[in-house]
Every structure is written in structure tokens, then in C-alpha cells.
Amino acid sequence: MTGNVETLGTGVPASTGTPGLSVSGVSVGYEMGGERCVVARDLNIEVAAGEFAAIIGPSGCGKSTLLSAIAGLAEPFEGQIRIGNTPTANRLGIVAYMQQKDLLLPWRTVLANARLGLELAGVAQDVANEAAAERASEFGLSNVIDSYPWQLSGGMRQRAALLRATLPESPVLLLDEPFGALDAITRRHLQEWLASVLDRAERAVLLVTHDVEEALLLADRVYVMSPGPGTIVDTVDVAIDRPRGESTVTMPEFIALKSRLLSALSSGAAASGGAPA
Ligand code: ADP
Ligand code: MG
């Protein structure tokens, strides 16, 4: 890690003071028949450069709608989204966004999928290819760069989608349930791997998940949302040393945080009268 992001003894990056991502007083939703339907409201989230934050919440509480707004695919109904000092309007090219479905293009090889973000940014194809091939080894994908998505296992497809999302050096990275569709063992393996490849990065990372352990293994801070229309019902700092792995989940501080998150989830559900999804 370089620049003004300092790594403390715990491995938790210190705040730089300037938020990489700032969401303040935001409401998001969709329009139908001229009516605005709010799916999440009063959202305040700060993720500094070098920090990793997670949002957990039940299905339908507006997590993906929020990420789409942060990515610049939609505008919030209310409030402000800022990336560093960049005006709200210019988010599209600055935010890397891995959507809930991996959305790899089936007619492109792993390498050609991986370089897509660079291609869209106008990087010459040979330069983009070289960058993608170099990073592919870090992602354990060197042997499959010429394969097509359908030839890969689910875990490899997720890694290819992550490679594509992380390749452009975007200051903000959004991950929407990146491991949701995988079996438990593959998921845990990829969570540990993701922590190791992202730990050095100086970007602001925001992960959406409905998996409490995943949030605690990866994040510096966890925001808990209530069922839709979602609001933030608790914010929890995770001061557990890194690297975090299989032995972390049995530590007393991990278990205490897990139980706090689970009770925040169920009290949010009780307050809104909804059942947990
Ligand atoms: P989450 O990611 O937390 O599961 P979403 O943000 O995907 O939730 O969706 C929140 C709610 O809004 C869901 O009930 C979803 O069906 C609804 N929704 C989101 N976008 C649209 C849309 N364009 N049209 C109709 N319903 C939508
Ligand atoms: Mg979603």
C-alpha cells in the first residue's frame, strides 16, 4: 500500500480523511407509471480510499438498487453520492461494478471479457490484453484465458467477473453478492482469496451480501439494512486482525459481532413487520 493510506498494526487501513465514496441522505427506487416507488431511504455510507465496507440486508431491501445508483446507472431520488471530490453526475466511468449476475459475455474468451473495462476506457487492445493476462495469474486464471465462460466452473466464472471488474484502476469498486450462487466451500475459498488480492488496493470497496460471516471476514465496517423500504439499522466496525480465515470464525470477538449483526437483522425485520428473507 502506498500514498496516504496508512496500514495500522491490525491490517485495517486508516481513514485518509477524504472519503473515496460518500452517500448522504440518499433515497433510491424506481418509477412505474409515473409514480416513484422508494425501495431504500435515508442512507448514509462513507467508505474511505483503502477501506472495505459491507452492506447486509434481506432480499428486496434495495441493496442492488443502491449500487446501481452509486455506479451512475440511475440517479437517487434524494440526497448526494460523491466519489472523492468528483461531482455526482460523472460516476459512470469511475466506479467499477460487479453486478449480481456475473454477466460475462458468452461469445468472448476469459481474456476478452477481462479486458472489456479497459477497452471501453479506450485502452489499445494489445495493451489491454497484456494487462489482463498479467492480472489473470494473480486470479488463478492463467490456464483458462482462452476459454469461454461456459467452459469454466462457477468459481472460475466469478473470478473472471472479478478480474474484469477490478482491472481498470477505479477508485471505487462495488460488488453485489459476488459469491451468492456458489457452494459453501468454494465461497469460503474465494472470500479468503478476495481478501488477499484486495488488501493492498487503495480503493474504496463496497460489498453487498446477505451472508453475515462473509461481511465479517471481509469488511472493516458493516452496515445492516432493514427489509424494504430499507434503511440502515446498525453500523458495526470490525476490528479483527487480518488475515481473517477459517480460524477467525471461532474467535469470541467474531462470534460476538456475528450475534450483534444477526440481532440487528431480526430487529430491523421485526420493526418493519416483515419476515426475514
Ligand atoms: P435487493 O438487492 O436488496 O434484493 P433490489 O434493490 O433488487 O433489492 O430491489 C428492491 C425492491 O425493488 C424489490 O422488491 C424489487 O422487486 C423492486 N424493484 C427494483 N427495481 C424495480 C423495477 N425497475 N421495477 C419494479 N420493481 C423493482
Ligand atoms: Mg440484489
What does it look like?
The protein has 277 residues and is of the alpha/beta class. The chain folds into 2 domains: 1-86 and 171-272, P-loop containing nucleotide triphosphate hydrolases (Rossmann fold, 3-Layer(aba) Sandwich), CATH 3.40.50; 102-169, no CATH class. The chain has 8 helices and 9 strands. The chain has helices spanning 63-71, 110-114, 116-120, 125-138, 154-166, 184-198, 212-218, 252-271; strands spanning 19-32, 35-48, 52-56, 78-83, 95-98, 172-176, 204-209, 221-225, 232-237. The strands form 2 sheets. The protein has a 6-stranded mixed sheet with strand order 5-6-7-3-8-9, sandwiched between helices. The protein has a 3-stranded antiparallel sheet with strand order 2-1-4, covered by helices on one side. α6 (184-198) links the parallel β6 and β7. The longest helix is centred in the C-terminal third of the chain and has 20 residues, at 252-271. It is globular, with a radius of gyration of 18 Å. Mean pLDDT is 87; it is low at 1-17. Bound molecules: adenosine-5'-diphosphate (ADP) and magnesium ion. Residues 30, 32, 39, 57, 59-65, 228 line the site of adenosine-5'-diphosphate (ADP).
